[in-house]
Amino acid sequence: MITRKLGAHGPDVSAQGLGCMGMSEFYGPGDEAQNIATLERALELGITFWDTSDAYGPHTNEELLGRVLQGRRDKVFLATKFGIVRDPNNAAARGVSGRPEYVRQAVEGSLRRLKTDYIDLYYQHRVDREVPIEETVGAMAKLVEEGKVRHLGLSEASAASIARAAKVHPITALQSEYSLWTRDPETTGTLAACREHGIAFVAYSPLGRGFLTGAITKPDDFAEDDYRRHNPRFTGENFTKNLALVEKVKKFAADKGCTPGQLALAWVLSRGPDIVPIPGTKRVKYLEENAGAMDVKLSESELAEIDAVFPPNAAVGDRYQANMMGSINA
Ligand SMILES: NC(=O)c1ccc[n+]([C@@H]2O[C@H](COP(=O)([O-])OP(=O)(O)OC[C@H]3O[C@@H](n4cnc5c(N)ncnc54)[C@H](OP(=O)(O)O)[C@@H]3O)[C@@H](O)[C@H]2O)c1
């Protein structure tokens, strides 16, 4: 397995991780046997940097991983998150908490569901604008002292928050959306802040929530409860305009001899040795295809061509709906 070092403070992990979120929520119906087969295959392939959160399900995604990891916890570098507060009885309800007492309550829940006594990488899922990040990271640092957590991470934190957090405790990884159609970290300063502080950049939704694979051709492809029905990039005219961009990716990939999804992942990998994409899938077939992206190399001239075909900011529509935009880059 090709590996990458997880920032200045972390270990080597598989150069591509596995996003487990869609196994439990957001991207259509899941299936326990299919999920388990995918996780087993990831282990066989050496894709052992797994990503979950207490918010996914809510809670059931961690339980799934807990079941699969029984007896082989040491095979996986396990990342989970806290801070998006959800109510299992009300799927739409969302809050953000970075209060120190909440951090402690959350970690105990995650450890129980994951059936483990340590978490390799513990992220604050969203920065709480009401709680100074020093207080939240201070509480997270205590978990490291106690051996419950090995490394600290942040998700969708701004450059300023990253700098403040890094003064309290070394931060191993920042997780934010990054892909051909979401290049914000290049301009918001977050990627630069990571590099300044020796923090790995973990790219989530590197396949544009599936759109960049070319497999999604009409909004009706989604199940009724699929989150993407509400995401601005997947709705109305935006969908059609973004599809035209993906058509160009498809053509480029065909000429290159890879799939569009592999091209999208190879592009993320090409952006620096400190970047680790975590494509999500619940299917063995996609997992295997995505793993193949680690062998796709893009030359400088091909990268320039991709920039011309899919320029930064070319995608139409915000990456989240309005009520969720406020919690990103906080
Ligand atoms: N920190 C955060 O706030 C945050 C936010 C979002 C996601 N994440 C993490 O990042 C991970 C990855 O992001 P993501 O799942 O949102 O988006 P993604 O990896 O860009 O795309 C996932 C979607 O692409 C589909 N797909 C995957 N490989 C494919 C292939 N080879 N061909 C066709 N379709 C393919 C999947 O289908 P199937 O579902 O059918 O397999 C799924 O619908 C998540 O699982 C989660 O762990 C974190």
UniProtKB/TrEMBL annotation:
Gene Ontology cellular-component terms listed: cytoplasm
PANTHER family assigned to the protein according to its UniProt record, in alphabetical order: AFLATOXIN B1 ALDEHYDE REDUCTASE (PTHR43625), ALDO-KETO REDUCTASE YAKC [NADP(+)] (PTHR43625:SF40)
Keyword vocabulary terms for this entry: Oxidoreductase
Protein name as annotated: Aldo/keto reductase
Residue stretches making up the NADP-dependent oxidoreductase domain: 17-309
One of the record's GO molecular function terms: oxidoreductase activity
Pfam family, one: Aldo_ket_red
SUPFAM superfamilies, sorted: NAD(P)-linked oxidoreductase
InterPro entries in alphabetical order: Aldo-Keto_reductase (IPR050791), NAD(P)_OxRdtase_dom_sf (IPR036812), NADP_OxRdtase_dom (IPR023210)
Signal peptide per UniProt: none
